[in-house]
Design a protein that fits this description.
- By secondary structure, the chain is an all-alpha fold.
- It has one domain.
- It is built from 6 helices and no strands.
- α4 runs antiparallel to α5.
């Protein structure tokens, strides 16, 4: 580690900023939102097998990848929010994509099961993502 890096890590502004993010992450409401986001991401990733639409391969792959992405974002927010708050805006966008995916993905992806699953999970992910985004914006001020 270079001397410049050590100086930056011990800078009072950096220390104060880390303390603010630690306080924000310790908030029970934030912890609840992060936990629910993790569960929503995992359910989205597994939804083709749980709900039973694995025959729609394109949507199965989409839900698997976006669900894993949401779960990883949630883990990043809960473990290192001070470093990951800059990408908090991606969670609501993934939620919006999840809602629209059954109609936008090629193939016969717009069945009752896929629409119901994706609309509900997409709305949950978008709302939880907006909560996280709002918290990150509040922490920046």
């Amino acid at each position: 580690m270079s001397p410049m890096t050590r100086q930056m890590e011990s800078h009072p502004d950096i220390i104060r900023m880390r303390e603010r993010y630690e306080v924000a992450a310790a908030n029970p409401a934030v912890q609840l939102a992060e936990g629910l986001t993790l569960l929503a991401g995992l359910f989205l990733a597994l939804s083709p097998w749980i709900v039973g639409f694995t025959n729609v391969e394109s949507l199965t792959m989409n839900n698997l990848v976006t669900g894993i992405a949401v779960a990883l974002l949630s883990l990043g927010f809960s473990s290192a929010f001070g470093r990951t708050y800059g990408i908090a805006w991606t969670a609501p966008l993934i939620g919006l994509w999840t809602i629209l995916a059954p109609w936008l993905i090629r193939g016969e992806a717009d069945t009752a099961a896929t629409i119901t699953t994706n609309v509900i999970l997409g709305a949950v992910i978008a709302i939880l993502g907006l909560i996280t985004l709002g918290m990150s914006m509040r922490r920046r001020r």
